[in-house]
Automatic annotation (TrEMBL):
GO molecular function, one term: 15-hydroxyprostaglandin dehydrogenase (NAD+) activity
Highest classification ranks of the organism: Eukaryota, Metazoa, Porifera, Demospongiae, Heteroscleromorpha
Xref: InterPro entries: NAD(P)-bd_dom_sf, Sc_DH/Rdtase_CS, SDR_fam
Database matches in PANTHER family: 15-HYDROXYPROSTAGLANDIN DEHYDROGENASE [NAD(+)]
Name this polypeptide is given: 15-hydroxyprostaglandin dehydrogenase [NAD(+)]
């Protein structure tokens, strides 16, 4: 399905990014993983190389907020795989006390990576960028304003780019709470507020469910500017928006 296509997945060493990298590889793509955690990146890429072949996996250690490194990563991906067709902006953090860092990683970095990728995607007939936002972009989390703001911003960025960019599709996915190390150390009990929220939302999603949505947004060429929500109760459902002109008329 995705053979001859090459993807960059940021934050692909674990969690949703790892599930997405694996599904892209299973679908035939070559995958470059950009991640900050040297150890996890190395363990994950060794495993994926054993499973899918050394020539289909590229490991690139970087901080997505370091613009020079990100440009190097795209250049290396193009040099190694011959093209850059797919970008999944997945790396993200939650750190309520570090609001500037949260905005830098969750919003500024995906925007910079998208603008950079667009340069490398020239000539690709199948170029697509998927941003991993969150239901927190819709249901603002009390006390986690930088995270919620970063995800609302990422949704708006995606929709805006989709309307003004020729030849590259932009979509985003908004999962609710998902079972990954982002929620806390694996095996350690979750704090009571988080447990309460997770029970209310009907349990945790699995990273493999989220990756299925991401790959759908990549492979279905009819989808552009789409915001795909995913929750345990409702499953996949697209957010419905007025067109820009319809919105203007309603002002
Ligand atoms: N786990 C959840 O409940 C949900 C997560 N999301 C979003 O999904 C995305 C992935 O999250 P998870 O897999 O849950 O997180 P995770 O913490 O399991 O994995 C994130 C990965 O990103 C990497 N990373 C973090 N900062 C980085 C940086 N500055 N440069 C490069 N790599 C960096 C980490 O090393 C890690 O490998 C994030 O954008 C998150 O906001 C969205 C909705 C729900
Ligand atoms: C009850 C409304 C919930 C709305 C948000 C829905 C899902 C969002 C999920 C995420 O993106 C999870 C990411 C960050 C929060 C994770 C851990 C911190 C715990 C405290 C908190 O919830 O902020």
């Amino acid at each position: 399905m995705l053979s001859e296509q090459s993807a960059v997945v940021t934050g692909g060493a674990q969690g949703i990014g790892l599930a997405t990298s694996r599904l892209l590889l299973q679908s035939g793509a070559k995958v470059a993983i950009f991640d900050l955690s040297k150890d996890k990146l190395s363990t994950t890429c060794d495993e994926l190389k054993r499973e899918f072949g050394t020539d289909r996996v590229l490991s690139f250690h970087c901080d997505v907020t370091d613009e020079e490194q990100v440009v190097k990563g795209f250049a290396l991906t193009k040099e190694t795989f011959g093209s850059v067709d797919i970008l999944v902006n997945n790396a993200g953090i939650t750190s309520p006390k570090e609001w500037k860092k949260t905005l830098l990683i969750n919003l500024h970095a995906p925007m910079f990576a998208s603008y950079t990728a667009m340069e490398y995607m020239k000539g690709s007939s199948k170029a697509v960028i998927v941003n991993v936002a969150s239901m927190a972009g819709f249901c603002a989390i009390p006390g986690n304003e930088s995270y919620s703001a970063s995800k609302s911003g990422l949704i708006a960025f995606t929709r805006s780019m989709a309307q003004s960019t020729e030849g590259i599709r932009f979509n985003c996915i908004c999962p609710s709470y998902t079972d990954t190390p982002l929620l806390g150390e694996p095996g350690k009990e979750l704090d009571s507020t988080l447990s309460f929220i997770i029970e209310k939302q009907g349990g945790l999603l699995k990273p493999e469910q989220v990756s299925e949505g991401i790959v759908r947004l990549i492979t279905d060429a009819s989808l552009n500017g789409q915001v795909l929500k995913l929750t345990p109760r409702k499953g996949f459902h697209f957010e419905k928006y007025d067109s820009f002109m319809e919105s203007l008329e309603k002002l």
